[in-house]
């Protein structure tokens, strides 16, 4: 008897390689973000896209706050056009980071989503800043 996991067969290795390699062009994770921050390798702007109150109650170190509803050409004017933005929101139950990534992409800005958001950051054992 075949399980529900194996019932649809796995993609060919070549297709899996292409898919997962492409996925990393769109996403990063809490661990890699933390490593970049703590090892002076932060070559991106970490952007918390939640509301101001949530940001004030705890956010990732070195992040800035710009709710996705306020993203526009003017609010990004102080950043060079090639700035990579890494966006995050509350966690897997929140689509604010996806909405922010769409806005940034529409504005022609490089963007990645940090999967896991604040929930993932805490789950990894990392501290929030206030």
Brief write-up:
With 130 residues, the chain is of the alpha/beta class.
Descriptive overview:
By secondary structure, the protein is an alpha/beta fold. It is 34% helix and 14% strand. The protein has five helices and five strands, in the order αβαβαββαβα. The longest helix has 11 residues, at 13-23.
Summary tags:
about 130 residues; alpha/beta; 5-stranded parallel beta sheet; 5 helices; about 35% helix; globular
Oligomeric description of these chains:
single chain
Strand content is 5-15%
Tell me about the largest β-sheet: 5 strands, parallel
Q: Please write the string of helix (H) and strand (E) elements.
A: HEHEHEEHEH
The percent of residues in helical segments reads: 25-40%
Shape: globular
Q: How many whole angstroms does the radius of gyration measure?
A: 17 Å
Total DSSP E strands: 5
Low-pLDDT segments, ≥5 res: none
Strand order of the largest sheet: 1-5-4-2-3
Number of helices: 5
Mean pLDDT: 97
Distance between the termini: 53 Å
Structural class: alpha/beta
What secondary-structure arrangement, pairings included, does this model have?
Elements lengths: L12 H11 L3 E3 H9 L6 E4 L3 H6 L6 E2 L19 E4 L7 H11 L4 E5 L1 H7 L7
Parallel strand pairs: 1-5, 2-3, 2-4, 4-5
């Amino acid at each position: 008897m075949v399980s529900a996991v194996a019932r649809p067969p796995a993609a060919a290795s070549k297709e899996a390689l292409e898919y997962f390699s492409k996925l990393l062009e769109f996403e990063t994770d809490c661990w890699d973000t933390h490593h970049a921050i703590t090892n002076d390798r932060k070559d991106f702007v970490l952007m918390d896209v939640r509301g101001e109150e949530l940001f004030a109650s705890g956010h990732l170190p070195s992040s800035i706050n710009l709710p996705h509803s306020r993203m526009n050409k003017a609010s990004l004017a102080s950043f060079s056009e090639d700035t990579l933005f890494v966006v995050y929101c509350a966690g897997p139950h929140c689509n604010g980071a996806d909405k922010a990534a769409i806005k940034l992409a529409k504005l022609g800005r490089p963007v990645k989503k940090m999967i896991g958001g604040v929930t993932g950051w805490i789950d990894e054992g990392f501290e929030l800043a206030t």
